[in-house]
Amino acid sequence: MNIIVCIKQVPSTSNVEVDPVTGVLKREGTKSKMNPYDLFALEQAFLLRERYGGTVAVLSMGPNQAMDVLYEALYMGADSAVLASDRRFAGADVLTTSYTLAQCVRKIGEYDLIICGKQTTDGDTGQVGPEMAEWLEIPHACNVTAVESFSEGEGAFIVKVNMDHSIYTVKIQAPCLITVDKDINTPRLPSYLRKKTVGNAQISVWSMGDLPDQDESHYGLTGSPTQVERVFPPEAHDDRVCFTGTGEELAGRLYSLLREKKRI
């Protein structure tokens, strides 16, 4: 079974600068980590490999610093890693991001399953995975809470899907894509021994020129139909007022304050 896991490096802090011209996050130089949902996707891939054999390849898109999360995935147990990195990919919305990743999947070649995290903590759209499946013209299932089995004879996965008000058991034909929810498993930690063995393993870095479609108008900010009009950080309010007195006095002061702020 050949599995591809899409992972992303996201800011590990909420104090992120926004480019005033393009309206996109300034990722370079920002303290980052692997998207938490992607840890569950990786673990699910490793569990399937342990059960059915095969390989796990990880795929990410971003600047060179995204190498950090790819190495983390290799130390956790991935067999190979690919980074899609090109300035022409910058500023991509969910549509062009999914298209770029789909082009990378086409270049990787044969696969049985693509696993993505349910969503990312920086964008929170939950759209990239399903859109990748549409570009690749393969079936997909979102919010998967369990992968029950894989039938080699039928070439199909049995998965459980959380539909908020009910849980569906779905048969999905391979090759396919799933997005996994948190708590589907318990992610393992990177292995120190594997890190010593893998070392600085070679990570493939692909630019637009390496992909099947080399039309620049299909990538990055140029190819994005969604344009951000304005992005700004929320105002921080850290003012505080402390009252002392009896319970009756405190209740009166709190009531007066709420009336003054027009909260009641």
Question: How would you explain this protein's 3D organization?
Answer:
- The protein is of the alpha/beta class.
- It has one domain (2-223): 3-Layer(aba) Sandwich (Rossmann fold).
- Helix content is 29%, strand content 23%.
- It has 7 helices and 11 strands.
- Strands 9-8-7-10-6-1-4-5-11 form a 9-stranded mixed β-sheet, with helices on both faces.
- Helix 3 packs across helix 4.
- The protein is globular, with a radius of gyration of 22 Å.
TL;DR?
This protein has 264 residues and is α/β, with parallel strands linked by helices. 29% of the residues lie in helices and 23% in strands. It has a single domain, classed as Rossmann fold, CATH 3.40.50.
List the helices and strands and how they pair.
Layout (H helix, E strand, L loop, with lengths): L1 E5 L2 E3 L20 E3 L1 H17 L2 E7 L5 H10 L3 E5 L9 H15 L4 E5 L10 H9 L3 E12 L4 E7 L4 E7 L2 E5 L11 H7 L5 E3 L13 H4 L23 H14 L4
Parallel strand pairs: 1-4, 1-6, 4-5, 5-11, 6-10, 7-10
Antiparallel strand pairs: 2-3, 7-8, 8-9
Helix pairs in contact: 3-4
CATH class: Alpha Beta
What's the CATH architecture name?
3-Layer(aba) Sandwich
Average pLDDT level:
89
The CATH topology comes to: Rossmann fold
**Beta strand count:** 11
Oligomer: single chain
Count the DSSP helices.
Answer: 7
Q: Termini separation (Å)?
A: 60 Å
Overall domain count: 1
C-alpha-based Rg, rounded: 22 Å
